[in-house]
Amino acid sequence: MRKTLFTAAERDALREATYAADREARRHAEHAWASLVRYVKQHEDDLDPLQIGRFHGFDVKGPKAGLPGWLRVAFMPQSPTTKGSMGRAGKESVIILYGTSLDPEWPTGIADALDMPSVKATFVHEFTHYRDRLRRKGKERLTGSTVSNAKRAQQRGDLGAYYRTPGEFNAHFQATAHKIETAIMAQVEKASLGRTMKKVVRREMAELFASFPKFHAAISQGYKPMAQAVREVESALKGSKWERKWLKRMHGLYRGLKSKVDKAMED
User: Which of 21, 24, 104, 128 is most buried when burial is the number of CB atoms within 10 A of its CB?
Assistant: First the structure.
């Protein structure tokens, strides 16, 4: 009997590699983030306290912040190895954002720390895990063995195996795509500063989107907010079928963003 390369859940994840589906998933994550930030800034002085081991932090239950009912977000002071994690507490899913990706003067200024792009990208990553688990509830899910495999691969420093688990592949792509789209659209917005600036931005965008190879070179070498992340993932996947899956998805991002930028520059 022929052994299948991917599980049913993995094939489902890879088939979803379209710009429209990816962008819709990021839109949900960004909407959830906006609701969370709004709530935290309004209630910074009376957030629910939380203790995990010897560390103290804050806990936000989903419904309070306009998030899904079975989701909580925890803010913890520090972690030596990670910026965020996704776990469970009873029936609830818990996204934890650690102090390494927040304000270095933690816990002072938590609301201001949430304005940092790196923190938002971490949330997009973890919220993608949350959505993956929800979509596969009652089916073969991106949980269990794939999560354990990702954790074990990370612990032994095997980045290739880590990024090849479907859950991490999807979450890292979405967080990276978020960084790319945010950086590019921020540049496009500068076109509103006047006719001269619009000409400059139009020329920059024409060069950036002249071809996929030029776009790919720019995001992996020039646009600093995401260049390091792109290089790390692609280096870990190099030579594997997952590298082709990643580049296919990047090409979809390129085409979708090109259309979005072209439309924005016409206005």
Answer: 128
Is the CB of residue 227 less than 8 Å from the CB of residue 219?
Answer: yes
How far apart are the C-alpha atoms of 102 and 112, rounded to whole Å?
A: 9
> What would the two tokens of residue 41 be?
């800034």
pTM of the model: 0.82
Domain count for the chain = 2
108 secondary structure, DSSP code: T
Q: Are residues 27 and 136 in the same domain?
A: yes
* Angstrom distance (rounded) from CA 226 to CA 223: 6
Tokens describing residue 138: 């009652």
**Is 246 within 8 Å of 237 (Cβ atoms)?**
yes
Answer whether the bond into residue 107 is a cis peptide, omega within 30°.
yes
Burial 23-46 (b: 16+ CB within 10 A, else e): bebbeebbebbeebbebbeeeeee
Task: List, edge to edge, every strand of the sheet that includes 55-61.
Answer: 48-52, 55-61, 71-76, 92-98, 84-89
Alpha helices, DSSP H, located in the chain? 8-15, 19-42, 110-113, 117-135, 145-155, 159-163, 166-189, 195-208, 212-221, 224-237, 241-266
27 & 138 share domain: yes
Bridge partners of 85? 96
Block residue for tokens 């839109």: 27
Residues 193, 158 contacting (CB under 8 angstroms): no
Are 28 and 135 found together in one domain? yes
Cβ proximity of 203 and 209 under 8 Å:
no
